[in-house]
Specification:
Strand content: 15-25%
Distance between the termini: 34 Å
Helix content: 25-40%
Largest sheet: 8 strands, mixed
Shape: globular
Pfam family, one: RAI1
InterPro entries: RAI1 (IPR013961), RAI1-like_fam (IPR039039)
Radius of gyration: 21 Å
Number of strands: 15
Strand order of the largest sheet: 1-8-9-4-6-5-14-15
Number of helices: 10
EC number: 3.6.1.-
Number of domains: 1
Enzyme class: hydrolase
Family: Belongs to the DXO/Dom3Z family.
């Protein structure tokens, strides 16, 4: 039986763990890169319902797997030149930023459970969020108002972002919500090396002149361009009128916003405060340091990242127990040659994290066939 992982915030109140500044190593959807010029605290009038009926919406029942990240790894394997790790303790972790944000917020979460598939393949650990029963129910029972709230967020981005640094936004057209631009980062959290994709809103270009991305150049030149730029995160929120709304904003929203931004090396969040009819009337700029400061009564960054670090350690320990039981102690020093090994981690508020060894990759494949057959062929096996 695998050990449990407890999540109470008091267990993770030590000093902030060692976390390297995230390094950009790639990009996904470069044609969708956008720019933000009008950053500042100001009054505006953005109608988020404009052309809402003609928007190209993202499917509400979308099953988010690792496909985009896996395709990136396949296409850029030789350029990235990752070493093949024999030891489980050094295994590289691949996932999306959303998963890390969800895990990091767990010590303060009191409503939404989560479920995460863990796959060990060729010495790498792949983590992928799976839908809980509650999430499936929510997707199947989304109201028109729920869908409208989601679309309002995309429309706000259209009011704020443009296709080039010297152009103005063009909100008077329907939104295509399926367009995404993502950066791929790598970093170290204590002893863990993580590679993750993060959807980005736009490059900030109000401080200094910014040139357009050098399309057609080799990937290293484009990565250098993207690494030198400051990105901004865009959010919407209902006007805060009452003390309870302010408390909820500081207790819940700021925590998630801070984790998302910190993991993507973003310093600035712009929030559009709207009324119940979808009219944004005020823009407010939040440096992420301020978010943590105004919310320190409710959550602490060190607790979030200490738990994230402990979670990654727990994943490796659970894999180690399964590998030792199935293949013996020596297999832990040759994990690159093991057959695919999988686990399922589940958590519900008020409970410790539970682990199951019965995750079935065949019925719910996280790694697609082409990736399984072709990834890792360029690895150099360490001596």
């Amino acid at each position: 039986m695998q050990p449990e992982l407890h999540t109470h915030s008091d267990l993770y109140s030590k000093s902030f763990p060692n976390f390297n500044r995230p390094k950009v190593i790639g990009y996904i959807g470069l044609e969708n890169l956008m720019y933000a010029r009008n950053i500042g605290n100001k009054n505006v009038h953005f109608d988020l319902n404009l052309h809402l009926d003609k928007a190209k919406r993202k499917p509400t029942n979308l099953d988010v797997k690792l496909n985009d990240l896996l395709q990136f790894l396949l296409e850029h394997e030789r350029r990235l030149n990752f070493s093949l790790e024999r030891n489980l303790s050094n295994a590289r972790i691949f996932c999306y930023r959303g998963l890390m944000t969800c895990v990091a917020c767990t010590p303060y979460e009191n409503k939404d459970p989560w479920k995460i598939a863990v796959i060990l393949f060729k010495g790498n650990i792949f983590l992928c969020a799976r839908d809980t029963e509650e999430k499936i129910y929510q997707k199947c029972h989304m109201t028109e108002q729920d869908k409208k709230f989601t679309s309002w967020g995309y429309k706000f981005e259209q009011y704020m972002l443009s296709e080039s640094p010297d152009a103005e936004p063009v909100p008077d057209v329907p939104v295509d919500e399926t367009k995404e631009f993502s950066l791929v980062f790598t970093t170290n959290l204590n002893q863990h090396t993580i590679v993750y994709g993060a959807e980005m809103d736009g490059i900030r270009c109000d401080k200094a002149p910014v040139t357009t991305v050098p399309t057609g150049e080799n990937p290293d030149r484009i990565v250098q361009y993207l690494s030198d730029k400051e990105f901004v995160e865009l959010k919407t929120n209902r006007h805060i009128q009452f003390a309870k709304q302010e408390t909820n904003f500081r207790r819940f929203k700021t925590k998630k916003w801070w984790c998302q931004s910190f993991l993507a090396d973003i310093d600035t969040i712009v929030c559009g405060f709207r009324d119940d009819n979808g009219i944004v009337e005020e823009l407010k700029v939040y440096p992420i340091r301020e978010l943590a400061k105004i919310s320190e009564r409710f959550w602490k960054p060190n607790v979030c990242f200490n738990f994230l670090d402990t979670f990654f350690t727990y994943v490796k320990r659970c894999l180690a127990r399964k590998i030792k039981h199935k293949y013996g102690e020596n297999a832990l020093k040759n994990v690159h040659s093991l057959p695919m090994t999988s686990l399922l981690l589940e958590w519900r508020p008020g409970m410790p994290v539970q682990v199951s060894e019965c995750y079935d990759h065949e019925s719910d494949p996280i790694l697609f066939k082409d990736f399984l057959e072709n990834y890792g062929k360029s690895y150099e096996i360490p001596s």
